[in-house]
Amino acid sequence: MLSERRLKVLRAIVQDYVGTEEPVGSKALTERHSLGVSPATVRNDMAALEDEGYIAQPHTSAGRIPTDKGYRLFVDKLAGVKPMTAPERRAIQNFLDGAVDLDDVVARTVRLLAQLTRQVAVVQYPSLTRSTVRHVELLALAPARLMLVLITDTGRVEQRMVDAPAPFGEASLADLRARLNSRVAGRRFSDVPQLVEDLPEGFDAEDRGTVTTVLSTLLETLVEENEERLIIGGTANLTRFGHDFPLTIRPVLEALEEQVVLLKLLGEAGDSGMTVRIGHENAYEGLNSTSVVSVGYGSGGEAVAKLGVVGPTRMDYPGTMGAVRAVARYVGQILAES
Asked: Distance from first CA to last CA of the chain, Å, rounded?
């Protein structure tokens, strides 16, 4: 265990390095921070921190910089989440309140996160598997062609065409719409197959084929495997941090193009807690020079998806964590009210 004094020295090194982008020396630390000890003592503490792997000396400098291990300790023990100011909170709310639908909410969220943190922002669309049905609409396009519209509690809208085996009258369509919604509205997607299993039996023989086809289309929509969508923004922000990446930012950019990699980085959507992965904690090698801050968002206290940012390990962790958490909270409120 590090002593309280050495923890203070580590905190000061992280704060100075993030703020100045320059390796930190003992003289600068004692001048900038009220550590209450002599430069010689700070030098001894820095030597101990280096021996234990919390800081390292770049080849070209007499100063020290934090390692992944140092940042990890800083995030876990030393960094409080920086609260957003009242004007910042109002700006977030005003920006997101103008959204007209789910696509607009996600697009605005990505832009906002990238602007607030000056990092790369990643937002996952609400997952169908963790959603509930708000309404199922059925529209007649032709005597034997229907449109099925599925609306979720998160505002997601899925449309599918249904080719019926026989003409389906308006009265039958209204009856099916009413019976279907009475069973599935407000219910979890995972419950729907069981809830509609015997629905065709309540219809006349000539209509059962069409009812079965509509239900098959609905169930296929619920379990589609390509539902995990996400949107990314602010990639150009990485160019500001060129010197934070050992050789080139190319591996980072290539990793950001891999949707599967990003979904794994964000973590399980059902987990609403904040996650901070630093440097080599990211399993994907191309992102070993980055940190990922993510959190779940959703309505009613349950996360339906994740959002977060990717940036260099030399990031303002308290500010980034505060921004990510605040934006997630507002997005959740919008989904609950939509």
From this structure: 49
